Amino acid sequence: MVARTAVFFHAHPDDEALLTAGTMAMLAAQGHRVVLVVATAGERGLADLPHGDELAEARTAELYASAAVLGVARVVMLGYGDSGLGEAGTAGDDRPADAFIDADVEEAAQRVAAVLKEEAADLLTSYDPAGGYGHPDHVQVHRVGRRAAEIAGTPILLEATVNRDPLLRALRLARRFYRFPPEFDVRSFERAYTAGEDITHRVDVRRFARAKRASMAAHATQATGGDGDRTLAAFLKIPRPLYRQVFGTEWYVHRDLPPGTRLRHPFDHLPDEA
């Protein structure tokens, strides 16, 4: 396979661990160049550390530790403020003046496009239109990523997502046996992410489950906060054999491909260079 460059665009540190870590580790292991672009330092996320510079510094260090585990060649932090998450999925009312959600889409897209051009990237990942579970910064990643790919002429734009159908079935079953953290509302996933019929890429990352788990574990500040263990901590408590199955697939949508497309690798529809 021809060596290519993939740029993964995320909103906060730990988003890469949850959505694309397996794909990143796989591509790096296959000899491709993997670049990680992150919009904010996540300084307003729920954690035991106070919001602001201290949390930003800790989460940035965790991001670099995660990137090292995954084989990432370059990390780019755009430096926007974390917009936070207020009631009903809105941005926090006390968000900073430089919050990512308030950034001019064109200006932000130009900054991401500059990375794409510098790297001669073959692929950019962003998020689905819903921003996964609806965080305002994730929705902004969708807008900015789409425009950046247009500006740079990047051949592939994949929206990182989750197959909503099995996720809902698993969560409803798990709710019978497990008490989820307070911030985890199963009902919020009924319109989150993407229906299975719209997903174009199902990437098997079971061989890279260890790297994905290590990537999650690197984000220690996001395992606790508030009233106790958070979602990330719950994921890390899953026994390793089961973890490999639960997190063994990562999903993407390519909007330019016809419905019903089922591809297994991010570069499957790019012809090899002569």
Automatic annotation (TrEMBL):
Swiss-Prot/TrEMBL keywords: Zinc
SUPFAM superfamilies per record: LmbE-like
One BP annotation, GO: glycoside metabolic process
GO molecular function, one term: hydrolase activity, acting on carbon-nitrogen (but not peptide) bonds, in linear amides
Keyword Cell membrane: no
Domain of life: Bacteria
InterPro entries linked to this entry: GlcNAc_PI_deacetylase-related (IPR003737), LmbE-like_dom_sf (IPR024078)
Name this polypeptide is given: GlcNAc-PI de-N-acetylase
Species this chain originates from: Sphaerisporangium rufum
Lineage of source species: Bacteria, Bacillati, Actinomycetota, Actinomycetes, Streptosporangiales
